[in-house]
């Protein structure tokens, strides 16, 4: 029975029910525990053994972090009379984890330099020998405070919101750290936001930028950018996994701003110890290194095509047969990867929605040109349109005049992509190296390809439908004109008759 007492709603229960903890660690299933707090019961027991605290209080702490519960809601959920108990348990577990748990699994006391060198993947060692980790920043949005000083410190002109900027550092093996070793030889991979880092204990390797009056990166710089992007992708996914803890992934309460640093260390230590690494060594790493080292030194033969080439205009559906049948393994070897494969579908839809022109070379039967491609990020009313050149070699073609690729025959057994090349007039379009991510299943890719070929690349039914619509509109317009002209003729006759009488 619900009773109304002033502005509060009180639930009429017995005293024993108020003291009972309904959502207890001991009366829920393993799946329910993982959904609520993001951890398994075994993980909670292990943490309780390390910090010597009540497992139920640990369960409450991580449930609040996972679900971003306020203290009053948590008190009702766990069956406490007041929220003071929840506040006491939260602060107690926060302090114990910071003092006893975090130093074991994160920071300089948890790793030695020997551990770093031993656990660094071969992909890092061979591509960037001096790199030991990845560094990047992340935005955590917070409430707008009534305190003017805090407002000023958290206000961002760039994001137009109040936020906290956090700097995150990960080892190459995917583990979080909160301190950097004092070694001048240490190198970290970062983005262009670290280009002004100077006089520090470490060096940040960033992607090359365009120089003044330069419109496109060289092939070498574009390939370096692609290598850095490939290796630093794990820290972006790491931030995404941290933000699944909604206490930091949503708008942070102002009362928690002073505790954000401790919370991030705790959640990163949990990530290091109980979650799967986001950069696990694979059996294909050695092959990937050979692939990358070979691709980054070859020249882009399509970049210097003669300007005197003659082109034949072709419709999109007329060049479908031009592209040879490629297996999924071949496409991955070329370097598209999982992300680019998924992105190819909306990009193709984007390309068909704009005015794209396709041409086939008269001189080289294995080269086509696509004009009118624009960036998906462009917001200008008149964006810059790029030109894309594609090369596919097919042994069944009768034309002997084909553009040959500059590949070493020793790699023919390793690379089944030696007959594929591309060039774009965009900033990084001269690269010959792409982001190769293997062993990532892509369900339904073959079916999606068939649908795209039938529904998107074949524009004849669409164009026929548009022509029919236009002709119907013209007929309606002509009919209206005839009706209006006849009405005017009758009206003139009436006026003449009136004047006659």
TrEMBL record:
Residues 185-272 form the DDE Tnp4 domain. It comes from the Eukaryota. Its cofactor is a divalent metal cation. Residues 465-479 have a biased composition (Basic and acidic residues). Keywords: Metal-binding. Residues 461-501 are annotated as: Disordered. GO terms for molecular function: metal ion binding. Residues 480-490 have a biased composition (Acidic residues). InterPro entries: HARBI1_dom (IPR027806). PANTHER family: THAP DOMAIN PROTEIN (PTHR23080). This is DDE Tnp4 domain-containing protein.
């Amino acid at each position: 029975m619900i009773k109304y007492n002033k502005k509060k709603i009180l639930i009429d229960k017995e005293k024993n029910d108020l003291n009972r903890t309904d959502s207890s660690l001991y009366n829920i299933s393993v799946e329910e525990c993982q959904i609520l707090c993001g951890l398994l019961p075994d993980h909670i027991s292990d943490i309780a053994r390390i910090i010597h605290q009540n497992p139920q209080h640990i369960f409450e702490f991580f449930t609040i972090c996972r679900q971003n519960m306020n203290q009053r809601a948590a008190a009702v959920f766990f069956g406490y009379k007041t929220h003071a108990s929840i506040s006491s348990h939260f602060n107690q577990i926060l302090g114990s984890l910071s003092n006893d748990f975090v130093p074991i699994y994160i920071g300089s006391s948890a790793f030695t330099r020997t551990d770093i060198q031993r656990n660094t993947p071969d992909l890092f060692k061979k591509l960037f020998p001096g790199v030991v980790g990845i560094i990047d920043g992340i935005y955590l949005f917070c409430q707008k405070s009534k305190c003017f000083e805090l407002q000023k410190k958290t206000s961002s002109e760039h994001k137009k919101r109040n936020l906290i900027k956090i700097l995150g550092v990960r080892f190459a093996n995917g583990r979080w750290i909160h301190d950097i070793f004092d070694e001048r030889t240490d190198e970290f991979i970062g983005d262009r936001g670290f280009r002004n880092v100077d006089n520090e204990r470490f060096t940040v390797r960033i992607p090359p930028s365009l120089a003044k009056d330069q419109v496109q990166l060289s092939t070498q710089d574009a390939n370096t950018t692609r290598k850095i992007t490939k290796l630093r992708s794990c820290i972006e996914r790491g931030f995404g996994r941290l933000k699944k803890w909604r206490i930091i992934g949503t708008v942070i309460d102002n009362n928690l701003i002073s505790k954000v640093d401790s919370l991030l260390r705790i959640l990163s230590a949990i990530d290091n110890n109980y979650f799967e690494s986001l950069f696990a060594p694979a059996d294909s790493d050695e092959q990937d290194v050979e692939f990358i080292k070979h691709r980054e030194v070859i020249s882009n033969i399509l970049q210097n095509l003669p300007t005197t080439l003659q082109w034949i205009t072709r419709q999109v559906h007329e060049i479908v047969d031009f592209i040879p049948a490629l297996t999924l393994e071949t496409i991955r070897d070329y370097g598209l990867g999982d992300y680019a494969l998924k992105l190819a579908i909306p990009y193709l839809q984007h390309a068909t929605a704009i005015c794209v022109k396709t041409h086939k070379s008269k001189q080289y039967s294995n080269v086509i040109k696509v004009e009118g491609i624009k960036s998906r990020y462009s917001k200008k009313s008149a964006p810059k349109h790029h030109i894309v050149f594609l090369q596919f070699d097919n042994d069944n073609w009768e034309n002997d005049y084909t553009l040959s690729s500059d590949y070493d025959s020793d790699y023919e057994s390793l690379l089944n992509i030696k007959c594929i090349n591309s060039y774009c007039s965009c900033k990084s379009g001269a690269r010959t190296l792409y982001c190769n991510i293997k062993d990532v299943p892509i369900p339904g890719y073959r079916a999606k390809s068939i649908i795209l070929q039938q529904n998107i690349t074949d524009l004849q039914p669409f164009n026929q439908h548009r022509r029919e619509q236009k002709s119907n509109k013209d007929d309606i317009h002509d009919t209206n004109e005839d009706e209006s002209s006849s009405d005017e003729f009758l009206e003139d006759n009436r006026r003449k008759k009136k004047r006659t009488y």
